[in-house]
From TrEMBL:
<dbReference type="Pfam" id="PF02698">
    <property type="entry name" value="DUF218"/>
</dbReference>
<dbReference type="InterPro" id="IPR003848">
    <property type="entry name" value="DUF218"/>
</dbReference>
<feature type="domain" description="DUF218">
    <location>
        <begin position="30"/>
        <end position="131"/>
    </location>
</feature>
<protein>
    <recommendedName>
        <fullName>DUF218 domain-containing protein</fullName>
    </recommendedName>
</protein>
């Protein structure tokens, strides 16, 4: 009975943190930020929010075919004011540091970060550590099978553990 309860609580916690994460109100942001990775899922949400809001989109640029649409947007921004940056490392903490510097440089007071739903909690923690701006996080829900969800949850659980151990920006 105790094992079943522990398992049920673990599943409920995983669902709340990674599948249906808490997000904030995304209105009134000075800029919308799209983190690198899974651009086909994240970029449409970010560009819509930016177009409906301040018209400012910040793009974390990284290598790989998955990020090609984001790199293309940096070259052809369309009607949006686009800021592109490349983090000094290939992880969310490095993106958060680079983003924090850009937010301070631009004087933005409120930003909305767009990432996959399984990444919302950790990305929010890391970005908030690296900026004084008010940070809302919007989730972009990827169309994923159970195997990919399980892999994402395990990876993010490890990332949250690392974020808890390393409290600095």
């Amino acid at each position: 009975m105790g094992l079943a309860l522990a398992l049920a609580l673990g599943v409920a916690l995983a669902l709340r943190l990674f599948v249906y994460p808490p997000t904030g109100s995304v209105g009134g942001s000075d800029a919308v930020v799209v983190l690198a990775g899974d651009a086909s899922t994240r970029l449409p949400v970010a560009t819509r929010l930016a177009a409906d809001g301040a018209g400012v989109l910040v793009v974390s640029v990284a290598g790989g075919a998955d990020n090609e649409p984001a790199r293309a947007l940096c070259s052809e921004p369309g009607d949006l004011e686009v800021y592109c940056f490349t983090a000094a490392g290939a992880d969310t903490r490095a993106e958060a540091r680079s983003l924090g510097a850009l937010v301070a440089e631009q004087g933005w007071r409120r930003i909305t970060v767009v990432t996959n739903s399984y990444h919302v909690v950790r990305a929010g923690i890391l970005v908030r550590r690296c900026t004084d701006a008010d940070v809302a996080v919007a989730d972009a829900r990827a169309d994923m099978g159970l195997r990919r969800w399980a892999s994402a949850v395990v990876g993010e659980a490890g990332g949250l553990g690392a974020a808890a151990l390393r409290q600095s920006c």
